[in-house]
Amino acid sequence: MSWFLMNRKGEERKKKEEIKKQFMKAIGKDASDGKLSRDQWTNVLIAAGIHNSTEEVHKSFETRVLENGRLSFEEFMGEESRAERLFKLMDKDGDGFVTKTEFREVCKNLNREQIDLAFKKFDQTGNDKLNFREFCDMMNKRTNSTKKGSETATANPSNSSSHHAPAQ
């Protein structure tokens, strides 16, 4: 590899590291869900010294289907998100769905009843499979339930995180 190409890769790596650094600062202040809005991303890129920040942010937001109009670091950088990696891991046959059987193979600590409850709650199409959106809804619900802590579970046992299969 030429010196020129090696030097460019080093520059790109440094830019990415600076963006990540500014992203971490921003989520520490404003984003408990690990995602930032369009305006927050613009501020991250400006703080990282990236030119044409507003245009870059608009391009990133236009090319993605957004949940709540926010993007994680991976989503913004065009990398596979943690949710996408986990979904692919569970989707053994690569058909774009996670079945109860596939889910059970990965989540061995959950019993059949817990998996059935999770699918009943998050399988919006009723096909006994989770598509990526349903899977993300389930994972986000688990994350939100976990963050709310035990006060939710003790305040309303019928709504506790123990009913969300992934939280077990």
Please provide a written account of the structure.
- The protein is built from nine helices and two strands; from the N terminus they run αααααβααβαα.
- It has 168 residues and is mainly alpha-helical.
- The chain folds into two domains: 3-76, Recoverin, domain 1 (Orthogonal Bundle); 82-167, Recoverin, domain 1, CATH 1.10.238.
- The chain has a two-stranded antiparallel sheet with strand order 1-2.
- 17% of the residues are buried.
Question: Can you lay out the helices and strands and say which pair or pack?
Answer:
Elements: H1 3-30, H2 38-47, H3 53-62, H4 73-76, H5 82-90, E1 98-99, H6 100-106, H7 112-122, E2 129-130, H8 132-148, H9 150-155
Main attributes of the structure:
disordered C terminus; single chain; Recoverin, domain 1; two-stranded antiparallel ribbon; 168 residues; mainly alpha
Fold-level CATH name of the largest domain: Recoverin, domain 1
> SSE string, helix = H, strand = E?
HHHHHEHHEHH
For the secondary structure, the number of strands is 2
Strands of the widest sheet, in order across it, are 1-2
- The N- and C-terminal alpha carbons lie at a distance of 49 Å
What's the domain count?
2
SS-derived structural category:
mainly alpha
Low-confidence stretches: 1-5, 143-168
CATH homologous group name of the largest domain: EF-hand
Would you tell me the overall average pLDDT?
76
Which strand-content bin applies to the residues?
A: under 5%
Overall CATH architecture of the largest domain: Orthogonal Bundle
**Over all CA atoms, what is the radius of gyration?**
19 Å
Question: Number of helical segments?
Answer: 9
**Biggest beta-sheet profile:** 2 strands, antiparallel
| Overall outline | elongated
